[in-house]
Amino acid sequence: MAGMYKIPKTTTTGRRTEVASKTPCLLPGDIVINILSRLPVKNLIRFKSVNKQWGNLISHPRFARMQMKQCENQSKRVLISTIPPLAIDYEAYSAGDCKAKFKLVYPTAFMKKGPKFGIKLVGSCNGLICLVIDNNELILWNPSTRESRELPKLPGSYAPDRFRFGFSFGFGFDASNDAYKVVQLGIPRVGDDDNALNSIKIEVLTLESNVWRRLQDLQSGLQLSGNGIFLYGQLHWIGKKAIAANLRSYVIVSFDLAIEKFHKAVPIPDHEERSISYPVLGVSGNCLFLFFTRGQSFYEGWITKEYDINTSSWTRMFNVGIDRLPGYRTWRRELCYTKTGQVLIDYDGMELVLYDPKRGTTQFLASTDWGSRLHSILYTESLVSPIMVKK
């Protein structure tokens, strides 16, 4: 990527920018690379057409990693599975920027299949989003560059028992092995007796080898909910365990993508079995956050001071009366805690709102009709190519 780079001389008239001279400037490669790596992805995609040299630079995997590191503090976006998909820079939108909400284009493979049962957004990492289509097909997609890649179909090594299992997924990056991985958990469905839980089936797809591998089952007695939350090389889940009749204990479990093993479960903060319900785990910046209701009266938010899920590292952000929450819904999933202290909440897959627990105010971002249900996920813009990931 080194050497001298041609910088076209341009003039700007109104909104038009034109080449003013056929003789470009020459700048050392390290200066050009440093400048370009600090620019937003949208601009860089446009600059790929400046000339072949710039196109090769911006398409290089090493430049993509450099740009991602330079812009790691950029605002995240929330992707919503409407048709067409919708993306919102919620920090900018909440500040009044109407252009922070925009439409995207689904992967070609998705549009060709015309899915009957819809899509699930099961994980995001480094600008890549992992989609499950019709509970069978896997697609890796970069919504910023519009590149996508079909992955091996979901495994069926215990197909005869598939209806006995619920499935949870996780997607993340194993930095120690420079590898992206998809994890599928087969979680036994709970009947009348929660203690009837069997072992959890674990299968891992390493994108570089493009092969699913079955790992040793997890003997935990836990019921895991939702998809894995990726942070610092690990996928995190909330686990629920029955202690006695109508009594549950909640813990946080993490799966290390490097060693492909679960770590010891730790209890959620300030935990009292009879008072906690609807716990939701997520990521805010480089920290984990946790939301839950306490009893029938309070809504609480917690965040880690640093990356350490031990109970002592958690700090409570707020505790408000549950009657202050916007409206009533049977299901709620918090997506993030913003820089301005707001909570991004997905209600029943029907509405996406920004809720300010201090002021008690709500801003609606998106909604759908009762006939359909939305999936939503956070992602960052990047140049990382799903196609260039080693096969």
TrEMBL record:
Protein name per its UniProtKB record: F-box domain-containing protein
One Pfam family cited in the UniProt record for this chain: FBA_1
Record PANTHER family: BNACNNG10540D PROTEIN (PTHR31672), F-BOX PROTEIN CPR30-LIKE (PTHR31672:SF13)
Residue intervals of the F-box domain: 21-66
